[in-house]
Amino acid sequence: MSRRPNIEGALKHVSSRYELVHAAAKRVEQLLKEGDDIFVRDKVKKELIKKTFYAIEELAEGKVQVKKVNLEP
Fold first, then answer.
1. Chain CA centroid to CA 39, Å
2. Could you please report the per-residue DSSP string of 6-69?
3. Model confidence over 8-62: pLDDT tens digits?
4. Residue pair 14/5 in contact by the 8 Å Cβ criterion
5. pTM (2 decimals)?
6. What is the signed CA dihedral for 24, 1, 61, 34, rounded to 10 degrees?
């Protein structure tokens, strides 16, 4: 059985599911700049996982924080 990302844990660090999707997408963009492959190797279990899964896990564990920017003048 495949693992699933800790979405409930990640939702504790953002205000909505929409913000979670946006934050995870931004993090995946950052990870893709580091390497073109869509997979990243888990440092503990040494298995390949998708960068989307990895981004959500980072949010859930608090390794990545969402910075909110006010665009109003």
1. 13
2. -HHHHHTTSSSHHHHHHHHHHHHHHHHHH-SSSEEE-TTT--EEEHHHHHHHHHHHTSS-PPP-
3. 999 999 999 999 999 999 999 999 998 878 888 877 778 888 999 999 999 999 9
4. no
5. 0.82
6. -50
> Token digits for 17?
């599911």
Single-letter amino acid, residue 28: V
**Following CA atoms 26, 57, 19, 9 in sequence, which dihedral angle do they give, to the nearest 10 degrees?**
-170
Q: Which residues contact 58 (CB under 8 A, 6 or more apart)?
A: 27, 64
Burial class (CB in 10 A: 0-12, 13-18, 19+), 20: buried
